[in-house]
Amino acid sequence: MSDFAAEFAAVGAWIDRYLSNARDYPVLSKVSPGEVASRLPSSAPEQPEPFESLMADFQSVILPGITHWNSPRFFAFFATSAAPIGVSAEALAAALDVKAMLWRTSPAATELEEVVMRWLARLIGLPDAFTGIIYDTASIGGFTALAAARESLELDIRERGMSARDLPQLRVYVTDETHSHIEKACIALGIGRANVVRVETDGELRMRPDDLAERLDADIAAGMRPMAIVATVGTTSTTSCDPVEAIASIARERNVWLHVDAAYAGAAAIMPEFRSILAGAEHADSIVVNPHKWLFVPMDCSALYVRDPDMLRRAFSIVPEYVLQHRDASSGTNFMEYGLQLGRRFRALKLWFVLRYYGAEGLREHLRRHIVLAQEFAGWVEAEADWEIMAPHPFSVVCFRYAPPGVDEDAVEAVNTMILDRVNATGQIFLSHTKVRGRYALRLAIGNVATTRDDVALAWSLLRGQTLEL
Ligand SMILES: Cc1ncc(COP(=O)(O)O)c(C=O)c1O
User: Fold this and answer.
1) What's the pTM value of the predicted model, to 2 decimals?
2) What is the dihedral of CA 87, 90, 91, 97, to 10 degrees?
3) H helix intervals, 269-393
4) Distance CA 22, CA 426 (A)
5) CA of 297 to the centre of ligand 1 (A)
6) Residue 290 beta carbon below 6 angstroms from any ligand 1 atom
7) Which of 398, 356, 359 is nearest to 381 (CA)?
């Protein structure tokens, strides 16, 4: 056996033990700022070090500073899962060390990406008219889509830029619930935060199509140029879903680019009973779904679907001399022309492995189980007089809080902040919070393949336990 084989076997055994015993680790790391760095040497070693020392330090120095995102008791933000089969695929991709930039620099990486993107599109009910490309994150996918939206305006911004020119004021339409990467993209693309228009939401935190139409028409009448509308299916805070169908028809009537951010909840559309959440998305120009959120693919893997991939190429394609000959040597797709990156990781492999290992039915079973657990948790909250649900919870995320009658908003916020700090300090679970229309809410997100009813029940008992001590 080579040294590598023995070392890799040791790593495999370690990962296996870790994943089997993930509940034994404090979910939220307890180290103080600077503690990990203080235990590391200030410069790299001159001499080679043995594998055993690396593993020993990994366990004694690094692990205490890890927040265990892959723990079944991680309920914060969006709970995710790196399925073991996805971890294996990552190891294989690392071994191949492919840069999937040109078809020729690894035909299988490019063609597998095209095939699994089609598989995923069909699973979530998107028509074949869409082309899928994998990016690292929804943020980069969203930025890329908005760059294409800007290019589609034919203002020659690619060549001439935006400064010292007579250009219309470009506008992007979101809501208060839209993820912040859209605003960042608008900063980076020269749109400016002042031109990010916040459309009103209804009682369930969904974009109001009537308000969208009014704002678009007022802006157009004032000589401004709507560049894009962003509809979200599964908002970050409460998982509310904007009415994509109605928004799509408003976008089409005014010829405005529609980007659908379904980073988290898009995965739910693999279940026929949830297919309707993407109704209307077939009319969008771009759609993002993150397999690294709720499809058990290890970070990072985000799928961007676009109706017109040539718009991405128009926005981004620059082919430097050193790749020209290889680019021209085949008619295959060259993904480097569809975004900022040149070298691209072979992310399709892990998605392919996960989709095949679980099968669509296996994935649906996990998602349905998560939703049932979240609904059961919400039922426990509702059954208690002093606790309240803060928003509709159609998927696997519940926003709720402790709110005894007669306690004012500031005191409710203070007490829930304390509850959150205390439950997280136990190390047994990790939850996060949000604000729902300005009101503080705790947030329980379920998304790990290994999460059980006992894990969720533990979370509820720890939360309730804090209030008994008040
Ligand atoms: C709705 C939504 N869009 C985009 C993102 C950003 O995702 P990423 O981390 O892949 O950039 C998130 C993150 O939680 C999200 O909830």
Assistant:
1) 0.96
2) -170
3) 291-294, 309-316, 321-328, 348-382
4) 15
5) 15
6) yes
7) 398
